[in-house]
Design brief:
Elements: E1 2-3, E2 10-11, H1 24-34, H2 37-42, E3 51-52, E4 63-66, H3 97-103, H4 106-122, E5 127-128, H5 152-167, E6 172-178, E7 191-193, H6 196-203, H7 205-212, E8 218-221, E9 225-226, E10 229-230, H8 235-245, E11 251-254, H9 262-267, H10 299-306, H11 312-328, H12 343-356, E12 358-362, E13 377-380, H13 405-413, E14 417-420, H14 438-452, E15 457-463, H15 486-496, E16 500-505, E17 520-523, H16 531-540, E18 576-578, H17 587-592, E19 610-612, E20 616-619, E21 627-635, E22 641-651, E23 662-671, E24 676-683, H18 685-688, E25 690-692, E26 697-699, E27 704-712, E28 715-723
Parallel strand pairs: 4-5, 5-6, 6-8, 7-9, 7-18, 8-11, 13-14, 13-15, 15-16, 16-17
Antiparallel strand pairs: 1-2, 3-4, 9-10, 12-17, 19-21, 20-21, 21-24, 22-23, 22-27, 25-26, 27-28
Helix pairs in contact: 1-11, 3-12, 4-5, 4-12, 5-7, 12-16, 13-16, 14-15
Bound molecules: alpha-D-glucopyranose.
Alpha-D-glucopyranose (GLC) binds at residues 67, 129, 176, 255-256, 394.
Length: 724
């Protein structure tokens, strides 16, 4: 404080924290120096269901958190999970993150992150609760639709542009759910036992890439335990790995209700405790009536600080991380105003949807449809009309536009289109899917089969939905088959009309044996607000499909290794879950054990064809230990198409057990008919390393490596060997 003698005018020390042009670190330091202990503590927990405090006295803004990764969730009441019933919070539902992963296109991730963040900005939200990168270890997990597949390299590469471009808008991503939250059953208490190699090579890498390369400003601790300690209070995980090894400087946010003790949260690396209690009511988890100061990082924590039982440095570190997040978002001078439901956002939604749809099968080149050949096209299936943007848990969205597949197909093909529901699933939102009424199912099936007799083409639109027990948070599926009698209905329809296209939705693989009699099969994940147009554009040939599977579709549920070890592998015994398959998750298991999948990781067809030339390998001339592998790719068909060139590496004669090959890079290239481009990849030691459990460190073996250039995990287009 500078007071000039004889004047009453005191020039208060410049409030650096209020200077939008001051460096964030200076703003943090200055603000911290002005705050009381109590004000610092208030930053560290919710003050409502979805906000955490700022410092009103100093004009430091609060943080508004909101779900979810696919769009900005509708407003909920201040102190409860109930919807606030606003009429100005409808949004764009963007495709699911599994659909984004299925594009294998980093540019799609970049435009996704920017667009979705602009919707959050317009809704005045600061922290977007997503994206999620939990690995698809167990194919019945009800939340896999929110994640980016079974491979850590693909998930990591595809999450980075999303985070970078979302945060450029002044919106913090909250990378979740950190970590090994790979099932929903007993998610709040199951303890995961996994080898060091599995942890380091499979379950951490996508999070590490999201933090270190993506620069995530916040990370959400998951509900489950690791090392028998809740991840939201886990010193080894949050302080050791995340903040220590990776240098994470943002704020760790708990999953809602994920904190269970003051000392655990205080010393275990938690920065913002959310969802513990619901203010003046009983929390949704039945926790007794709370007011927010009784959060674990509330009064009790403050008391321990004031008694010196917890060092002030612990409080100051947490408060600094929260302040840093506030200055990066709510008080960021470059935070955009954003936009909601703009044409640009719908275009982004459509582009990603079209690029994420996977053409699984196309016998007789039934697709694209030559509409001049058909006069009566019958669309069958509940998912042709049912909204798939509502429900599913916290990623649920209230949309202004939700073009159904039937709407899209009618817009494309006019009154040729007829419709029969074929089956029904009920509206089991947040409740487990009840058994459906067999009489009603039989009636719907009979109606569809009757109509099928006069159709010259059938388009079946089914798969999963967002009901409890399907693709829905807090539940896992209890069957690998499609539900509601769909397999039998598909087979019966195919018997009546051999010109049948099956289109499925869903975030997980399923038993596709029912597709044997189906010539054309598309899988669509969840496509968001413009589903119908995207499907019509693919089916009509206006857009050439280019999606590739980010997961393996096994022929049988029990082909997945997580089911090979009894209940200890899933759902766990006495809440102890064992990842006995180790690093052999997804295709890593299938290729090493010669188990043939129904549809392989990286699989996806096109309406054109591609020819690969001979791959070449050259050592770096710059002295760095890298090699470059190049391969020409040519479009040998009649229409423009995009191909995903996939690079896998295998170690010949490794001294440790390793999968036959692992994805190490990929590139999506667009080619006109007859056009050829050469795709090049640079390989360095990071692509070759494995985690050594004796030295607890990354190691690289010398010797021979085989590089596989593939169009899917099982279709090799060329190999080269090099010696490191
Ligand atoms: C939920 C979810 C999490 C979500 C949070 C807030 O329980 O696990 O993904 O962001 O609570 O809704």
């Amino acid at each position: 404080m500078l007071c000039l003698a004889g004047t009453s005018l005191c020039f208060a020390q410049a409030k650096i924290y209020q200077n939008p042009n001051a460096p964030v670190e200076e703003r943090v330091k200055d603000a911290l120096s002005r705050m009381t202990v109590h004000e610092k503590v208030l930053l560290l927990h919710g003050q409502s269901k979805f906000t955490s405090a700022g410092v009103p006295r100093l004009g430091i803004k609060e943080l508004h958190h909101s779900d979810g990764p696919h769009g900005c969730r509708a407003e909920v009441e201040w102190n409860s999970w109930n919807t606030a019933n606003w009429n100005n919070d409808s949004c764009v539902a963007f495709p699911s993150l599994t659909c984004l992963a299925a594009t294998w296109n980093r540019d799609m991730s970049a435009i996704y992150g920017k667009a979705v963040a602009e919707e959050f900005a317009f809704r005045d939200k600061n922290i977007m609760l997503g994206p999620g990168v939990n690995i698809n270890r167990m194919p019945l997990n009800g939340r896999n639709f929110e994640y980016m597949g079974e491979d850590p390299l693909l998930a990591g590469e595809m999450v980075v542009p999303y985070i970078q471009n979302a945060q450029k808008q002044g919106i913090a991503c909250c990378l979740k759910h950190f970590f090994v939250n790979n099932q929903e059953w007993h998610r709040e208490r199951v303890n995961v036992n996994a080898s060091e190699r599995a942890i380091r090579e499979i379950y951490l890498p996508a999070f590490r890439k999201g933090v270190v390369e993506g620069g995530a400003w916040s990370v959400m601790g998951s509900y489950n335990k690791w090392l028998n300690i809740h991840c939201c209070e886990n010193d080894s995980l949050l302080n050791g790995i995340l903040k220590g090894e990776w240098g994470f400087d943002g704020a760790v946010v708990s999953d809602w209700g994920g904190v269970h003790s003051t000392m655990g949260a205080a010393l275990g690396g938690m920065d913002i405790e959310m969802g513990t209690g619901a203010g003046d009511g009983v929390s949704s988890r039945g926790i007794k009536t709370y007011t927010y100061n009784t959060n674990f990082l509330g009064d009790n924590f403050e008391k321990l600080i004031n008694e010196g039982k917890i060092p002030m440095s612990v409080l100051d570190d947490k408060a600094s991380r929260v302040l840093r997040t506030i200055f990066r978002t709510a008080m960021n001078p470059n935070k955009v105003i954003g936009e909601l439901c703009s044409e640009e956002h719908y275009d982004v939604c459509l582009q990603i949807a079209e690029e994420g749809i996977v053409l699984m099968k196309n016998d007789r080149n039934l697709l694209p449809i030559d509409v001049s050949r058909y006069s009566h096209i019958l669309v069958v299936g509940e998912n042709a009309t049912r909204s798939l943007t509502e429900g599913g848990g916290s990623s649920e969205l209230k949309t202004k536009l939700d073009i159904s597949p039937l709407d899209g197909l009618r817009a494309a093909f006019g009154d040729r289109i007829d419709y029969a529901q074929g089956y029904y699933s009920g509206r089991a939102m947040y409740a487990m899917q009840e058994r459906t009424d067999s009489t009603r199912q039989a009636q719907l099936k009979a109606e569809a089969l009757e109509k099928a007799k006069s159709a010259d083409l059938i388009i079946f639109i089914g798969g999963m939905n967002k009901n409890g027990g399907q693709d829905c948070e807090a539940t896992d599926r209890n069957e690998y088959q499609l539900s509601f009698g769909q397999p039998e209905l598909i087979a019966a329809l195919a018997k009546i009309q051999k010109n049948i296209v099956v289109v499925t939705f869903g975030g997980n693989p399923f038993d596709t044996s029912c597709m044997k009699s189906v010539p054309a099969f598309l899988h669509c994940w969840y496509l968001g607000s413009i589903s119908g147009t995207a499907i019509a554009n693919i089916v009509s040939g206006k857009v050439n499909p280019s999606g590739k599977l980010p997961i393996t579709f096994a022929a049988n549920k029990n082909d997945y290794p997580c089911f090979h070890y009894g209940e200890r592998g899933f759902p766990g015994v006495n809440d102890q879950l064992y990842y006995d398959e180790g690093i052999f998750v997804g295709y890593r298991y299938f290729n090493t054990n010669n188990v043939k999948p129904a549809f392989a990781f990286g699989h996806g067809l096109s309406y054109t064809t591609f020819a690969y030339g001979k791959p070449t390998v050259s050592a770096s001339t710059s002295g760095k230990k890298t090699v470059t592998v190049s391969i020409p790719v040519r479009n040998t068909g009649k229409v423009t198409g995009k191909e995903v060139v996939q690079l896998y590496i295998g170690k010949n004669g490794s001294k440790v057990e390793r999968p036959e090959k692992e994805l190490k890079d990929f590139a999506k290239v667009s080619l006109n008919p007859g056009e050829e481009k050469t795709v090049s990849f640079t390989i360095d030691d990071e692509d070759l390393q494995y985690w050594d459990e004796t030295t607890h460190s990354w190691q690289v073996e010398s010797g021979k490596y085989t590089v596989y250039i593939n169009s899917s995990e099982v279709v090799n287009k060329g190999k080269v060997v090099f010696v490191r």
